[in-house]
Design a protein that fits this description.
Elements: H1 18-36, H2 46-59, H3 61-68, H4 74-78, H5 86-115, H6 122-126, H7 129-147, H8 150-155, H9 157-178, H10 183-204, E1 206-215, E2 222-229, E3 250-254, E4 267-270, E5 285-292, H11 300-310, E6 313-322, H12 326-332, E7 336-342, H13 346-357, E8 371-377, H14 389-397, E9 400-404, H15 408-411, H16 416-433, E10 450-455, H17 458-473, E11 478-482
Parallel strand pairs: 7-8, 7-10, 8-9, 10-11
Antiparallel strand pairs: 1-2, 1-6, 2-5, 3-4, 3-6
Helix pairs in contact: 1-2, 2-5, 3-5, 3-10, 5-7, 7-9, 9-10, 16-17
């Protein structure tokens, strides 16, 4: 179930794990069942099939908006944060757009095969109020799909964000007036959208802070820093960044000073710094750091880098924190914790490492791994400076087994699966020599399992996943967690 197939040749499409694929296929099978249940396959019933496609579109609309919301109950029900569920959101959206297309195609075919012969011109059919409103909603949601494609999203991310919201509003409005039976589903979807965007993200989960912008030595990477006194948490209101965060969580950053277009735009970044300590609320202080590396020659990150050259101080708005505690909990429950990161993935690893091996754990009841290892793959020599030597030395003094591969620009890509397999075999041999069971029970020092967290390019993630799958097939107790954004 953990195995991840290789890319589809020709289209260069990345496939998820077998378990995720089976979940998606099961949902698609349910949709197909309702598409064709008691549906005679003849032209006479084409209108009924087209109508059923439209019904399935609106019936899945609340699910689409629920999976897209950053603040939603699915995390409390499943333990997975919204970014882990993003792949389901995209597949639901794609199937819904396909249902909308068949709804449109079926109605046009009904006109061509029946209404045209009764003397109804195409123009009069299309400009019928119900058809015209449905056509407008169809165009809006197909526009969402086209602008959500990876090629468009990566090249024009800001435009993707803006059009995503604009097309959603247009689609919901026209769908509301298209047919009265769609209104309950539209109402639920709109309530989810407004509660997430306005109530939570722009109010309850939002906070503003002064920040410092520092350009690192490679002249291509930006370090954003801010600090504040942590506010006491309350049971009633949702927590925001003023109340602190947990290791491996992320936020959405807005910098209004860049331009007017950035006032409402927010961009995700993993929190690079350690989470505030568990001391008394009155003594807690938050030190926030974000490692920001521009992804293109245009866009928010490049504009922020240019802004930092002349404005080292600015004000920021933070929306969050978001994320799941699964990775930290898995590592804490393991006898050996292995983190494999590439490039800026060190922003994922450092807070986890700090929480795992900080000396304060020796005086608490929190579980702690026996062995903690970090494999960091960098592309250029200057990327090694993203984490100062003093921080790395501190982690090593606390017990970290550190391996930093030579920069790939100079030495090529390392064989990460081979290094990981060597570590896992050494751990397995150590367990055998010390008399520990391969599938041990929990103890004061944690269970005899190995936890692996990986963050990096898709090829690296797939190699690590598949190696762990092979280790599981051989009977070894290894767990893996992938930390990456789904977009």
């Amino acid at each position: 179930m953990l195995y991840q197939p290789a890319r589809i040749p020709g289209v260069n499409r990345t496939l998820p794990t077998i378990a995720t694929s089976l979940l998606i296929l099961s949902w698609i099978g349910l949709v197909l069942f309702y598409n064709f249940h008691h549906m005679p396959l003849s032209f006479v019933y084409l209108f009924v099939f087209a109508d059923r496609c439209g019904i399935l579109f609106v019936a899945n609309l609340p699910l689409l908006y629920l999976l897209a919301a950053k603040n939603q109950p699915l995390q409390f029900l499943t333990g997975y944060s919204y970014e882990s569920l993003n792949i389901l959101h995209r597949r639901v959206g794609e199937v819904m757009c396909l249902e909308a297309f068949f709804h449109f195609l079926g109605m046009i075919s009904t006109w061509y095969g029946l209404l045209r012969h009764l003397g109804l011109p195409l123009a009069r059919f299309l400009f019928n109020r119900v058809v015209l409103l449905g056509l407008a909603a169809f165009i809006a949601y197909e526009g969402i799909y086209l602008t959500s494609l990876g090629s468009f999203r990566q090249r024009w991310y800001e435009l993707f964000l803006a059009l995503h919201i604009v097309f959603q509003v247009i689609g919901l409005v026209f769908l509301w007036f298209h047919h009265h039976t769609s209104r309950p589903y539209v109402s639920i979807s709109l309530a989810i959208f407004l509660a997430d965007r306005l109530l939570y993200r722009l109010w309850l989960r939002s906070s503003t802070h002064p920040a410092t912008l520092s350009i690192l030595e490679d002249e291509e990477t930006l370090l954003l820093s801010a600090n504040w006194q942590v506010a006491p948490k309350t049971c009633l209101a949702p927590h925001n960044m003023r109340h602190g965060w947990q290791p491996n969580q992320h936020i959405f950053l807005t910098v209004p000073a860049l331009s007017r277009q950035h006032v409402l735009q927010s961009h995700p970044f993993t929190i690079f710094s350690a989470a505030p300590t568990a001391a008394a609320d009155a003594d807690k202080h938050a030190w926030l750091s974000l490692l920001i590396r521009p992804q293109s020659h245009q866009g928010f990150t490049q504009q922020l880098l240019a802004h930092a050259r002349t404005h080292p101080q600015t004000r920021i708005r933070l929306d969050g924190p978001y994320g799941s505690p699964h990775a930290l909990a898995m590592l804490q429950a393991s006898s050996t914790a292995i983190l494999i990161v590439a490039g800026s993935g060190i922003a994922v690893a450092f807070p986890l490492l700090h929480s795992l091996i900080h000396p304060r754990h020796s005086s608490t009841k929190a579980p702690r791994p026996r062995n903690v290892k970090l494999l960091w793959v960098t592309r250029a020599p200057t990327h090694r400076l993203w984490l100062p030597d003093s921080k790395l030395q501190e982690l090593e003094d606390w017990g970290l087994d550190l391996l930093i591969c030579p920069p790939t620009l100079l030495a090529g890509r390392p064989h990460v699966p081979g290094l990981l397999e060597q570590w896992l075999c050494c751990e397995h041999q150590h367990q055998q020599h010390s008399g520990m069971p391969a599938f041990g029970t929990s103890s004061d020092l944690g269970s005899s399992t190995t936890g692996v967290v990986v963050s990096g390019p898709e090829d690296l993630v797939r190699d690590v996943r598949n190696l762990v799958a092979r280790q599981l097939w051989q009977g070894r107790d290894v767990r893996v967690r992938v930390e990456k954004f789904g977009w």
